[in-house]
Amino acid sequence: MANYQWYPGHMTKAKRMMQENIKLIDLVIELVDARIPLSSRNPDIDELGKNKSRIILLNKSDLADTRKNKKWMEYFSDKGFHVLEMNSKTGAGIKSIQGVVQQACKEKIERDKKRGILNRPVRAMVVGIPNVGKSTFINSFAGKACAKTGNKPGVTKGKQWIRLNKGLELLDTPGILWPKFEDQTVGLRLAMIGSMNDEIIHLDELAYELIRFLRAEYPGLLEKRYGIEVSEGQDAYDTIKSVCISKKCFLKGEELDIMKASAMIVDDFRAGKIGKITLEMP
């Protein structure tokens, strides 16, 4: 199996910035990809965000397995997170966030009231690994009307707060952390959903891994999508050959274009065309 790895040099800088910023906020909103909720997290966030209210947004939940979304919601709720399914591209679930923010920060709001501080907005920071949809989320959550509130006393110069409404402000530097590759399956799953640069990935190997997974966990989906027959015990390479023939992926003459079929399978999976699929379970 190929070795999937990420070596971003600016990781330590990003983490340092988050450590500084986290002191200013009440709430950490973390985006994960609903198809790989654990592999698309960075465990450092729990350390950085301890003592803060926490929300986990299962982004792209419409591409994931509905039953498994429920299981993941239970898993994170049991760990003390507030959880919400959403899709930042279509805006599904965005309207519910305000209510979840109020729930997550209930204690803070009550504490403020007791001290006679009324209507101090909750300050939130949005975090997640690259390509998980943070910017899209911030844009659709903030909508067109997002006003920068400028530099406030006590806020280091250059940090911009986006006033979403009178109850909530977002620190507009999204916190970027890189996933931890404790084991290679994390890298593989990230590669499958397109969170890594496809130029460093062998798409045919990725397609084989995907086929093996789908045949074990979601039998029948490949057959349905590509109009092929998959016999018991058939290996992934033979399945790709069947897809080539069914979808007319040829190079010259009768030579099969394995790369073209591999890319098609991977793209179809990422776009949700093979079905609603979750790659890992809690």
Give structural attributes.
282 residues; alpha/beta; 7-stranded mixed beta sheet; 11 helices; 7 strands; elongated
Layout of SSEs?
Layout: H1 11-22, E1 27-33, H2 44-48, E2 53-59, H3 66-78, E3 82-85, H4 94-104, H5 106-114, E4 122-128, H6 134-142, E5 147-148, E6 161-165, E7 168-176, H7 184-193, H8 203-217, H9 221-226, H10 236-246, H11 258-270
Parallel strand pairs: 1-2, 1-4, 2-3, 4-7
Antiparallel strand pairs: 5-6, 6-7
Helix pairs in contact: 8-10, 8-11, 10-11
What would a concise description of this structure say?
With 282 residues, this protein is an alpha/beta fold. It is built from eleven helices and seven strands. Helix 8 crosses helix 10 (236-246), helix 8 (203-217) crosses helix 11 and helix 10 crosses helix 11.
Describe this entry's structure for a reader:
The structure is a single chain. Mean pLDDT is 88; it is low at 150-156. Strand 1 (27-33), helix 2 (44-48) and strand 2 form a beta-alpha-beta unit. The protein is built from eleven helices and seven strands. A seven-stranded mixed beta sheet has the order 3-2-1-4-7-6-5, with helices on both faces. The two termini are 24 Å apart. Helix content is 40%, strand content 15%. With 282 residues, the chain is α/β, with parallel strands linked by helices. It has helices at 11-22, 44-48, 66-78, 94-104, 106-114, 134-142, 184-193, 203-217, 221-226, 236-246, 258-270, and strands spanning 27-33, 53-59, 82-85, 122-128, 147-148, 161-165, 168-176. The longest helix is centred in the C-terminal third of the chain and has 15 residues, at 203-217.
